[in-house]
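Margin note: ligand = zinc ion.
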Amino acid sequence: MDLTGARDLARELMDAHGLRRWTFRFDSAKRRAGLCRYDTRVISLSRHLTALYSPEEVTETVLHEVAHALAGPRAGHGPKWRRIAREIGASGQRCVAADAPTVPAPWEGRCPAGHVHQRFRRPTRPMSCSRCRPGFCVEHLVHWQLHGEDVDLGPRYQAELEAAVARHRRSRLAG
Ligand SMILES: [Zn+2]
Ligand SMILES: [Zn+2]
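Resulting structure:
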Protein backbone atom coordinates (compact mmCIF):
# COMPACT_ATOMS: atom_id res chain seq x y z
CA MET A 1 0.00 0.00 0.00
CA ASP A 2 1.32 3.49 -0.69
CA LEU A 3 2.44 5.32 2.42
CA THR A 4 0.21 8.37 2.05
CA GLY A 5 -2.84 6.15 1.85
CA ALA A 6 -1.62 4.10 4.80
CA ARG A 7 -1.09 7.21 6.87
CA ASP A 8 -4.63 8.44 6.13
CA LEU A 9 -6.07 5.03 6.89
CA ALA A 10 -4.19 4.79 10.18
CA ARG A 11 -5.26 8.29 11.22
CA GLU A 12 -8.87 7.51 10.39
CA LEU A 13 -8.86 4.27 12.39
CA MET A 14 -7.10 5.87 15.36
CA ASP A 15 -9.58 8.76 15.45
CA ALA A 16 -12.55 6.40 15.08
CA HIS A 17 -11.42 4.50 18.18
CA GLY A 18 -10.80 7.48 20.40
CA LEU A 19 -7.07 7.98 19.86
CA ARG A 20 -7.24 11.57 18.63
CA ARG A 21 -4.55 12.57 21.10
CA TRP A 22 -2.19 9.89 19.85
CA THR A 23 0.32 10.59 17.13
CA PHE A 24 0.86 8.48 14.04
CA ARG A 25 4.32 7.93 12.58
CA PHE A 26 6.24 5.71 10.24
CA ASP A 27 9.39 4.03 11.50
CA SER A 28 12.22 2.10 9.89
CA ALA A 29 11.69 -1.29 11.51
CA LYS A 30 12.17 -4.27 9.27
CA ARG A 31 11.06 -7.12 11.49
CA ARG A 32 7.85 -5.84 13.01
CA ALA A 33 4.95 -4.16 11.29
CA GLY A 34 3.66 -1.88 14.01
CA LEU A 35 4.48 -0.43 17.37
CA CYS A 36 2.54 1.16 20.20
CA ARG A 37 4.43 3.50 22.51
CA TYR A 38 2.56 4.37 25.65
CA ASP A 39 4.98 6.95 27.04
CA THR A 40 4.84 9.24 24.02
CA ARG A 41 1.39 8.07 22.79
CA VAL A 42 2.61 7.10 19.38
CA ILE A 43 1.45 4.37 17.05
CA SER A 44 3.91 3.72 14.29
CA LEU A 45 4.10 1.45 11.30
CA SER A 46 7.16 0.15 9.51
CA ARG A 47 7.44 2.04 6.25
CA HIS A 48 9.21 -0.96 4.72
CA LEU A 49 6.54 -3.51 5.60
CA THR A 50 3.62 -1.13 5.03
CA ALA A 51 4.77 -0.61 1.46
CA LEU A 52 4.54 -4.37 0.93
CA TYR A 53 1.15 -4.82 2.59
CA SER A 54 -2.32 -4.80 1.12
CA PRO A 55 -4.82 -2.28 2.56
CA GLU A 56 -6.40 -5.19 4.49
CA GLU A 57 -3.07 -6.05 6.09
CA VAL A 58 -2.41 -2.41 6.95
CA THR A 59 -5.87 -2.18 8.53
CA GLU A 60 -5.20 -5.32 10.57
CA THR A 61 -1.83 -3.97 11.73
CA VAL A 62 -3.23 -0.57 12.72
CA LEU A 63 -6.15 -2.15 14.62
CA HIS A 64 -3.72 -4.49 16.34
CA GLU A 65 -1.79 -1.47 17.63
CA VAL A 66 -4.95 0.52 18.44
CA ALA A 67 -6.01 -2.42 20.61
CA HIS A 68 -2.66 -2.22 22.43
CA ALA A 69 -3.23 1.49 23.01
CA LEU A 70 -6.73 0.87 24.38
CA ALA A 71 -5.81 -2.19 26.44
CA GLY A 72 -2.89 -0.49 28.21
CA PRO A 73 0.75 -1.42 28.67
CA ARG A 74 0.21 -4.33 31.00
CA ALA A 75 -2.25 -6.27 28.86
CA GLY A 76 0.34 -7.60 26.43
CA HIS A 77 -1.35 -9.98 23.99
CA GLY A 78 -3.50 -11.38 26.82
CA PRO A 79 -7.29 -11.78 27.11
CA LYS A 80 -8.00 -8.06 27.60
CA TRP A 81 -6.09 -7.10 24.47
CA ARG A 82 -7.70 -9.95 22.48
CA ARG A 83 -11.22 -8.93 23.51
CA ILE A 84 -10.62 -5.28 22.53
CA ALA A 85 -8.93 -6.28 19.29
CA ARG A 86 -11.96 -8.35 18.27
CA GLU A 87 -14.38 -5.61 19.34
CA ILE A 88 -12.75 -3.07 17.06
CA GLY A 89 -12.55 -5.48 14.15
CA ALA A 90 -9.04 -6.91 14.26
CA SER A 91 -8.58 -10.64 14.23
CA GLY A 92 -7.14 -10.70 17.74
CA GLN A 93 -4.43 -12.99 16.51
CA ARG A 94 -0.82 -12.07 16.97
CA CYS A 95 -0.17 -10.24 13.82
CA VAL A 96 1.02 -10.61 10.29
CA ALA A 97 4.50 -9.81 11.51
CA ALA A 98 5.19 -10.24 15.18
CA ASP A 99 5.45 -7.05 17.12
CA ALA A 100 6.74 -6.25 20.53
CA PRO A 101 5.19 -3.16 22.02
CA THR A 102 7.70 -1.33 24.14
CA VAL A 103 6.49 -0.79 27.63
CA PRO A 104 8.45 1.92 29.36
CA ALA A 105 7.01 2.53 32.80
CA PRO A 106 5.66 6.06 33.31
CA TRP A 107 7.23 6.34 36.76
CA GLU A 108 10.98 6.31 36.98
CA GLY A 109 12.90 6.80 40.18
CA ARG A 110 16.57 7.11 41.05
CA CYS A 111 18.40 6.63 44.31
CA PRO A 112 21.32 8.95 45.16
CA ALA A 113 23.68 6.35 43.66
CA GLY A 114 21.79 6.46 40.38
CA HIS A 115 20.06 3.06 40.42
CA VAL A 116 16.96 3.23 38.29
CA HIS A 117 13.59 1.92 39.50
CA GLN A 118 10.46 1.73 37.38
CA ARG A 119 6.81 1.60 38.31
CA PHE A 120 3.55 1.51 36.40
CA ARG A 121 1.64 3.05 39.29
CA ARG A 122 2.07 6.21 41.30
CA PRO A 123 4.28 5.44 44.31
CA THR A 124 2.12 5.77 47.41
CA ARG A 125 4.88 5.52 50.01
CA PRO A 126 8.52 6.57 50.14
CA MET A 127 10.82 3.78 49.01
CA SER A 128 14.54 3.38 49.40
CA CYS A 129 16.90 1.64 47.03
CA SER A 130 17.05 -2.09 47.70
CA ARG A 131 20.15 -2.40 45.55
CA CYS A 132 22.03 0.03 47.77
CA ARG A 133 20.79 -1.49 51.01
CA PRO A 134 18.07 -3.94 52.04
CA GLY A 135 15.40 -2.44 54.26
CA PHE A 136 14.18 1.12 54.32
CA CYS A 137 16.72 3.88 54.79
CA VAL A 138 16.18 7.55 53.99
CA GLU A 139 19.79 7.89 52.89
CA HIS A 140 18.97 5.72 49.88
CA LEU A 141 15.62 7.27 49.10
CA VAL A 142 14.29 6.87 45.57
CA HIS A 143 13.37 10.15 43.92
CA TRP A 144 10.40 9.63 41.57
CA GLN A 145 9.54 11.38 38.32
CA LEU A 146 6.54 10.95 36.08
CA HIS A 147 7.48 10.96 32.39
CA GLY A 148 10.75 12.62 33.38
CA GLU A 149 9.22 15.43 35.43
CA ASP A 150 9.02 16.11 39.12
CA VAL A 151 5.49 15.82 40.46
CA ASP A 152 3.77 16.26 43.78
CA LEU A 153 3.22 12.79 45.20
CA GLY A 154 0.48 13.96 47.53
CA PRO A 155 0.09 14.78 51.22
CA ARG A 156 0.16 11.19 52.42
CA TYR A 157 3.43 10.45 50.68
CA GLN A 158 4.89 13.71 51.97
CA ALA A 159 3.77 13.01 55.54
CA GLU A 160 5.33 9.56 55.50
CA LEU A 161 8.52 10.95 54.07
CA GLU A 162 8.78 13.61 56.76
CA ALA A 163 8.08 11.04 59.46
CA ALA A 164 10.78 8.75 58.08
CA VAL A 165 13.30 11.58 57.94
CA ALA A 166 12.47 12.57 61.53
CA ARG A 167 12.84 8.95 62.71
CA HIS A 168 16.16 8.70 60.97
CA ARG A 169 17.41 11.91 62.55
CA ARG A 170 16.34 10.73 66.00
CA SER A 171 18.02 7.37 65.61
CA ARG A 172 21.25 9.02 64.55
CA LEU A 173 21.17 11.34 67.55
CA ALA A 174 20.49 8.39 69.80
CA GLY A 175 23.15 6.15 68.32
ZN1 LIG B 1 0.93 -6.78 19.45
ZN1 LIG C 1 20.77 2.52 44.88
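The chain has a mean pLDDT of 88.
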